[in-house]
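[job 0412] stage=fold_complex status=start
inputs:
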Amino acid sequence: MSTTFVESTAQAVECVRDGDTVLIGGFGAAGQPVELIEALMARDVSGLTVVNNNAGNGTTGLAALIGAGKVAKMICSFPRQHDSQIFDAAYRSGQVELELVPQGTLAERIRAGGAGIGGFFTPTGYGTALAEGKETRVIDGRGYVLEAPLVADVALVKALRADELGNLIYRKTARNFGPIMCTAAAHAIVQVSEVVPVGSIDPEIVVTPYIYVDTVVTVPHPATPASA
Amino acid sequence: MTESIRRADAPLNKNDLAALVAGDIREGSFVNLGIGQPTTVSNYLSPQQRVTLHTENGMLGMGPEAHGEDVDPDLINAGKVPVTELPGAAYFHHADSFAMMRGGHLDVCVLGAFQVSVGGDLANWSTGAPDAIPAVGGAMDLAIGAKETWVMMTLFAKDGTCKLVDELTFPATGVNCVTRVYTPDAVFVLGDGQVAVRETFGVDADDLAQRMGMPLTAVA
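[job 0412] stage=fold_complex status=done
writing structure:
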């Protein structure tokens, strides 16, 4: 299916349904698709499982989504931060379930999900509480933990630029989870600062080929600026 | 045997400790400095060392912290502090960044710790407090990923207990992964279940062994 270009962030997130698993890009503020999250806030959906490195900061974006009661479960590596009070309260009251995953394992589970890999053995977490209940194996004298792939219904990602086919490039460390999240979602929704004609992104530097991109919306001046 | 161990007159302050770690990093190394105190090591690396810094959020060739007009919200380090890029820097996505780490391509990572065991087990992600919200980030990947994991920490906790222990009492971040421990009182080299002292600062090795409650040997 070819990439659809829509006029508004509201249109972009129309496909999200109750109970969906939603991958949300970003590491801290860098790469966070703030405008797509705000559009999701306006939707009457609940019971979402959200995958992000963190669990929201301050009172906007992902934190607001959790505060609005739309999130049933967070899968993340680092929920606790100095300004994660909304998640902290929701977790302590039992409103939100937490699946804690080491950051590299989180990234690799998403990569595996997008790459059709049925699981992988990683040395990360071997011998720790986060490996409890998981299959382990010693390979060439080293301990490994079996981890499952992670796939999702939807990904919300921020990139710098798309061409009119949907090929993407990102900007600096705002790239972070974006490329792998596009591959692991049935429906990858991407906000970009600009859309340029086909051929104006050098094929050698395309980071996410358009086969992975379903919906693109232009947000020329995002909350976290991505000025080239 | 411990008489041969080099001894300085006073304990190291934080800056001296960071400088000592920096000086031990071999020329041309690829290094990850985690978050927090270990990141101060970068202030003491010399250009002649040609050290390349990796940050888990997808960058090689990280430069110093950014200030003023150089601050770019799209360019941050693992601690979410604005940084700069050096000529020759490269960006990559998260799965590649952690593949680089787990795949043993980094020479050294330097981490903080709550405890390190004689066997090289590391505890730095959770105190195990029942009401704490757990958060691990990249700590477990870093601990087991680099060719060498060095720890920078105080040797004694605020209550006076030694943080270099026979067995961890805090939850493990990784097992058998720490090879060196840098503290204000001494530098330790771990291996084969032995704690060897490379040098001490403001204390004799024998007195230190007594305070720590464990036998210490000199580095072979």
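[job 0412] summary: The two ends of chain A are 29 Å apart (CA to CA).
[job 0412] exit 0
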